[in-house]
Amino acid sequence: MAMAHRTPLNLLRRAPNILLRPSSSTFQQQQQSCKLSTTMPALARVSPGDKISASSPSKGGPRMRAKYQYRSPRYYRGRLAPNMPPPSASPASRLFVPGPFAAERLEDHYWNTLAPDLQVLSYVHKQNPTFNLDRDYRQLTALRLPPKPSRQQLPALRTFRNIPRLTGITVHSMVRAAMKESAYLHAAGMVVQSVTGVRASVHKSKENISMWELRSGKSIAVTAQIKGRSAYRFLAQLIDVVLPRIKDWKGIAGGSGDSSGNITFGLSPEGVSMFPEVEGIVGGFGALTVVVIVNYDMYLPKMVPGLHITIHTSAGNDVDAKILLKSMGLPFDGNFR
């Protein structure tokens, strides 16, 4: 009697095609038993009286554990700080600003034309020092009083490393009508923000001045700081579009400045209305030109404020700053002082 041949278990494991598969009815019974035996735990609901964490999707939904999301610190707090902020050029930085998307004409004109000319105009070669042992030794070692401080302007440019350049622009507006009605301050903030493209910050008064009817703690002014390419864009728009359209405007006073290279001038509400963001658009149909005032619905003429514009430069004195701004196209009235 021949014995039945049995397949070893190891051979069955290595050759899956030889394995005996269960029938369809047996497979369905096993799958049904798995479904019945496996039950999902009920989700715990949170009562309205309990505190809901900020990570919960909704007050009526289940409480979920928030995933940890690392946010780099915004400010650099020294080499010994445990967390270091990434460089501002990194997309992970909180100070990252995408761009540039277009080249600024005034900035290119400065680097290609004005900067070399200013370097030639202001550069002074360093001469080799000479020393006379008999005369200079007694003169340098003589006892004398320390020099008295003087309020003179900073010295002129001496090397090629300190060529004046534009560092930023500050746009400020003080609205006196805001002391009685806050709508004037809101309109001024919207005008400053639309003209500069920067979020305006509100300033409050610090003292009580009865002559101006000013109370302490009252929001009275708005300010916007422009830096980088936006400063060149704002200055180019000011020189090419706004200032040429102001009637009977002679230019910035020649004596303006703070002796440190910062030039300040003002614009009346009529001059601020010349900005394209405030005035509107001009459309033409053949020989007929129609002015479409679209933004006066947002900025009422009586609520358009005046502006104080301060141009910050890296020059050490006002004369070099005025030479820089005049070469860019900003007009000045009178001689430089």
UniProtKB/TrEMBL annotation:
A Gene Ontology term for the protein's cellular component: ribosome
Keyword terms, alphabetized: Ribonucleoprotein, Ribosomal protein
Molecular function terms from GO: structural constituent of ribosome
Entries under InterPro entries matching the protein: Ribosomal_uL5, Ribosomal_uL5_C, Ribosomal_uL5_dom_sf, Ribosomal_uL5_N
Occurrences of domain Large ribosomal subunit protein uL5 C-terminal (ranges): 220-332
Segments forming domain Large ribosomal subunit protein uL5 N-terminal: 162-215
Record-linked Pfam families: Ribosomal_L5, Ribosomal_L5_C
GO terms under biological process: translation
Family: Belongs to the universal ribosomal protein uL5 family.
Protein name: Ribosomal protein L5
